[in-house]
Write a structure and sequence with these properties.
It is built from three helices and no strands. By secondary structure, it is an all-alpha fold. The radius of gyration is 14 Å and the shape is globular.
Length: about 70
Amino acid sequence: MPVTSKYSDKQVEAILNDMINVLEQHRAPADLSLMIVGDLATNIINNNVPNGQRKAIAEKFAHALQSSVKDKQ
């Protein structure tokens, strides 16, 4: 079952494109880009999620990430 978001695809795409453009502007290789995205996710969780919910949110985020990664076949 697809996940329904309260955010429009247009808004998500615009922000994603901005973030990709910044990484490309800095010529960030994949490993640095992933480190930046991980640090950003950590910062968002630590600064915007109540203490008692952080671990659960991080686990849900990790699971969603794993579910969205495609195996090359």
